[in-house]
Write a structure and sequence with these properties.
The chain has 2 helices and no strands. The chain is mostly helical.
């Protein structure tokens, strides 16, 4: 039940974070090699989206912690 679900949630969060780091890093490398500002703008947008998703997931975990003793 709960342990398996938490493990899967953490695994998914880890993969999403890894994908975000690789995509932002790759975009910054492309920007440094080409000088095209489009890559830098995309990296900034991806970083902001990653931070928003991370805060949403952390808020959901916090809400679960608070509401779990009630159920």
């Amino acid at each position: 039940g709960g342990v398996f679900r938490k493990c899967v949630a953490k695994l998914i969060m880890s993969f999403l974070l890894l994908f975000a780091v690789l995509s932002i890093g790759g975009s910054m490398i492309l920007w440094s090699l080409t000088g095209n500002p489009r890559y830098k703008a995309w990296a900034w947008k991806a970083f902001r989206a990653t931070v928003v998703v991370l805060f949403v997931l952390l808020a959901l975990f916090a809400i679960e912690r608070v509401l779990a003793p009630i159920a």
